[in-house]
Design a protein that fits this description.
The chain is an all-alpha fold. Helices cover 77% and strands 0% of the residues. It has a single domain (16-125), classed as Orthogonal Bundle (Topoisomerase I, Chain A, domain 4), CATH 1.10.132. The longest helix has 36 residues, at 58-93.
């Protein structure tokens, strides 16, 4: 008696509403990242000007404010990433294909990691 091999499970694609939400979140995170990148050169200049300065002096304080501004911009990308995480889990729990969500999520993770690296670099420059 011949045994028919089992067919692999192929999950259905997520619905259009889910895909629209994923794209909306990715666009939001990309826009936030663009704003982060636009603010980064000034923050870098201020951090380099404060490098070696005493904690609490004016150059240090100005650099702290510039870095805090970058952190606020990063938080917008992180909110989008958290929402993508939620969509990823919901899609997976529904038995739908996660690849479209995973692709967007991976892209935004990379953007946030770039932002984290720059913020860490600037904090290190001012002794933070």
């Amino acid at each position: 008696m011949a045994v028919t091999p089992a067919q692999p499970y192929v999950p259905a694609a997520p619905g259009g509403e889910t895909l629209d939400r994923v794209e909306q979140l990715a666009v939001q995170a990309r826009a936030s990242h663009a704003e982060f990148l636009a603010a980064a050169p000034a923050a870098r200049r201020q951090a380099m000007a404060a490098s070696g300065a005493n904690t609490g002096n004016e150059a240090w304080a100005v650099a702290q404010v510039a870095i805090a501004d970058l952190e606020a911009r990063r938080s917008l990308a992180m909110v989008a990433l958290a929402d993508l995480d939620r969509v990823y889990i919901e899609t997976s729990n529904a038995g739908e294909a996660i690849a479209p969500v995973e692709d967007a999520r991976s892209e935004i993770i990379q953007l946030v990691e770039q932002e984290n690296a720059l913020i860490a670099e600037l904090l290190a420059a001012i002794g933070g």
